[in-house]
Amino acid sequence: MKKSLVLLLSLLLVTTTMLSACSGGSNTEKPAKTGEPAKQEEKADNSPFEVTLRHTQVGADKKNRLAILQDVVKKVQDETPGLTIKLDAVDSEVNRKEKLRGEMAAGNPPDIFDVFGSPDAQLYAKEGRMLDLTPILAELGLSDKFPNVLDPYTYEGKVYGLPIGASAEGFFYNKDYFAQKGLKVPNTFPELEELLVKIKADGKTPIAAASKEGWVPLMLTNQLWARYAGPDIVKRIAAGEAKWTDPNMVKAFAKHVEWEKKGYFKKGELGFAYGDITGQFTSGEAPLWFDGTWKSSVFKKGQSGEAMIGKVGFFNMPPVDGGTGEQTALMRDSNNGYGFSAAVADDPRKLDAVKKFIKELFNEDMQLRGLTEDGVLPSMTIPEDKLNSTVNDELMKDIIKVLNSTQGSFPAWDSQVDPDINTEFSAVQIQKLIGGQTTPEKMAGDLQKVTDEVLANKE
Amino acid sequence: MNKAMKNPTVFILFVLPAVMLFLMFFIYPIFSSLYFSFTSWNGVAKLDKIKYIGIDNFTKALGQDRFWVAVKNNAYFILFSVFLQVPVIVIFSLLIAHVKKLKGLYKTAIFLPSIMSTAVIGILWGFIYEPDIGLLNKILSFFGIGKIYWLSDNTYAMLSILITNAWQWTGYYIIMVLAAILSIPKELEEAAAIDGATAYQRATRIVLPLITPIISVVVMLSIAGAMKAADIVIVMTNGGPAGSTEVMATYMIRYAITSFKYGYGNSIAVLIFIFTLIVTLIYQLLVARRNERIEY
Fold it and tell me: What is the pLDDT of residue B49?
């Protein structure tokens, strides 16, 4: 009797433990079940439903961008009866490298999510996790509104994501300092080098630098080799048609090293994180700063460069004598944008919400708001007169002027090569080059070795 | 009750929840990791599309110079903690155990770093190592020593990380050793003192032998901690400059996880597991087993 009582009690204990352990699982399945009847009903279904939206607008720097997104969300919700868009904010690096990847592996990404173009979106598209937007773009009349920026989001001819904006890379310069010292924006490469000499002689660090993350100094190296070896060299290297050891490529690496040796960059740069670079420029320590146009948002009200509003200019890397290819080309990139879960296609109401979201976010007004409020260049075509009448920020005008005066562009090198080459170059080789542990020739050879391995594996 | 526990059915029922949790969170991940380490999984592909590639991942990892740099750095971590950190831990514990006043303050102060998040410590020490305005260079300039670029010069970068890591964890182990020292019966030391033993003799001949088991545990924990170190490296140098401070865990993240090579990443994880197993096994065989059991 006693024995059976104990048995009974222990059985009870185990079953309750197991049941409570399982209860979490059954909870998560509920929304899916309530969604099913909604699918079967025809038209005018106003029952509540939810669309999840993962964004990366976290922190003070991105509050302007968040405000734009919130306005879009509100509009879509107002237009769609029953819809609640659930915002899920995650830091962009965490989202890109961990959270979204985990969700993609498990096959349950949010309905709408912030996604990096190449190679991320293409890989997710290849594995069938992303919604094909080609028919939606055609339906909304947007097919030809994104000139030259959809490549990172295109897989086998179909579009799987839309870039929120575009960016370009060039030199920011301190206008006040230039005026004080009687310096001029360089039009030729010798003028640029002369400028560097003068700034150095004045006791300043010519160029701000923070190379703890290798991609930061590589922005400049990339621009240099685009001048010396041509804007399309990386594309050809990735295809096996050219080599890193190309003499012009080595010349570009050598130029970077020469500038390092002459002390044109902030000393100890390998120990500084990307966040430190802004301070070097805004404090007046370094009058030049090679970076992407996204950094123009620093010189807006309430941001760390507020004191320099109107005192910052932007210029393109001048042409190199005897350089290869188009000498005004600069890096233009559009890798930040939104993608949508493939599962959305199974639910007509969600699909409708996604269409509305695209319509409200990707239009001229929102693109111009992004430009004026957030310093993000438009990814869509905007008539030039409209652009000029909207922009009143001096720096932005400078940037647009530079963009209008350039002939060609090239995508960032790291979006064109295999991740193995990217890691080798940005995590190791470029830092070795800056630290004087390798030579331009040796680095080119090492990079080529990794590239050859990658190409061999592909075959 | 005892009778009931002898009944295997009841016994199993009681053990089952714990066993299930253990299977779910320890055994299953280890085996799935082992499984993926033999594949070229990209982390996204559906499971039925995964390709089996044998031991390719392992031969690739073991053939990479950079992986061995990471292994070497893990070895530095171990050597630094066993031969420098552990003696410091023991000395400080002995000192604190014998202070008369403010013992609580010392204990709290020394324990403080180990409750701070590694990210905070990274920023804190980032300021200390800052070349232009950092505390360390300011102090050194007092003695006429020129600027040292602690985190950007590969001569010093690894050392800087090791010092920070030691600073973070020393307090934690001191508390453990301190507890062992304080649990030694007072009579032992008193008797020795009456017999004329000096404080140094009491520390080396009585206290130290009695706390050897706990020191052995501290060494084991340090080794295990050193093998899986990653966070401190990520916040301080991110493996740089030029990969000189990469450890196995950061190597795994950089060369595998961020490059969509989950199969390769899992093989590195398995290698970390195997290496840790080997190192602890060697330690067990060489040192820990020889310790005698102590009974008061």
Answer: 80
